[in-house]
């Protein structure tokens, strides 16, 4: 595994980890929070009439985990899979949101609701855990998302450089031992061993306009990204996964497809 990512708040930029715990809801603390409007739509960098509401400026915000709860480990020794507690229990982790002007607020507080409502121009409040729906988190179609470096290489920009993985917002980025472009497509239905966890690849990930959005001063608006994915691979890039056996993972762990 070449990199490991967590997005503590839905549709905000996230944080890069060196190690983490994968449980039934994916990376511990991933998409644990979202902003909810007064019509009970979740604020997003894309739109969906029944669930997500497009709110400009979401990707200008960054969320980071300031204090860990449960078995997630960002630094320090690797947790033992046999002794780590479930990440589904206990209080949510403390998540700090940084605004473009440098101000910071803590997710789930009245101050954060007021500051982000004023910044984004509509009444919003932090929502934790999605009321137990969708793995108890604010995920789209699965609790975990993976992309290979072969897919990033197959979608180069105008300068020939690989696609930045943050366009796709994966949890796991891995370098496949073989398989060519879009190597992960061939893994649908298979089991994968990564670190102490066992994962099942459930389906390919169909991309949306969110891949084109600017992300503060880190990624510019890129209107051709979605078209490139559409031409190259039927608008799919990456795969969704379910966690079959929870466990610790770390950058550098090999990905091992299970025969069968």
Automatic annotation (TrEMBL):
Any one GO molecular function term: pyridoxal phosphate binding
SUPFAM superfamilies in the cross-refs: MOSC N-terminal domain-like, PK beta-barrel domain-like
Top-level taxonomic group: Bacteria
MOSC domain location: 113-258
PROSITE patterns (alphabetical): MOSC
Family matches, as InterPro entries: MoCF_Sase_C, MOCOS_middle, Pyrv_Knase-like_insert_dom_sf
Name of the protein this chain belongs to: MOSC domain-containing protein
Source species: Patulibacter medicamentivorans
């Amino acid at each position: 595994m070449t990199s490991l990512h967590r997005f503590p708040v839905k549709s905000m930029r996230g944080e890069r980890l060196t190690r983490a715990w994968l449980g039934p809801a994916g990376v511990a603390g991933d998409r644990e929070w979202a902003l909810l409007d007064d019509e009970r739509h979740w604020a997003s960098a894309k739109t969906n009439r029944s669930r997500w509401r497009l709110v400009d400026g979401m990707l200008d915000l960054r969320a980071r985990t300031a204090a860990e709860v449960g078995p997630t480990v960002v630094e320090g020794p690797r947790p033992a899979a046999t002794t780590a507690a479930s990440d589904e229990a206990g209080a949510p982790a403390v998540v700090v949101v940084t605004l473009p002007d440098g101000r910071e607020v803590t997710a789930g507080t009245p101050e954060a609701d007021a500051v982000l409502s004023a910044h984004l121009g509509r009444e919003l409040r932090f929502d934790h855990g999605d009321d137990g729906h969708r793995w108890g988190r604010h995920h789209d179609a699965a609790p975990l998302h993976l992309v290979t470096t072969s897919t990033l290489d197959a979608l180069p920009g105008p300068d020939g450089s690989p696609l930045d993985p943050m366009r796709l917002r994966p949890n796991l980025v891995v370098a496949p031992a073989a398989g060519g472009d879009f190597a992960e497509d061939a893994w649908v239905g298979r089991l994968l061993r990564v670190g102490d966890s066992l994962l099942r690849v459930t389906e390919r990930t169909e991309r949306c306009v969110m891949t084109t959005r600017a992300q503060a001063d880190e990624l510019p608006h890129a209107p051709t990204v979605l078209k490139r994915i559409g031409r190259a691979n039927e608008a799919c890039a990456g795969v969704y996964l379910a966690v079959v056996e929870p466990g610790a993972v770390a950058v550098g762990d090999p990905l091992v497809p299970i025969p069968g």
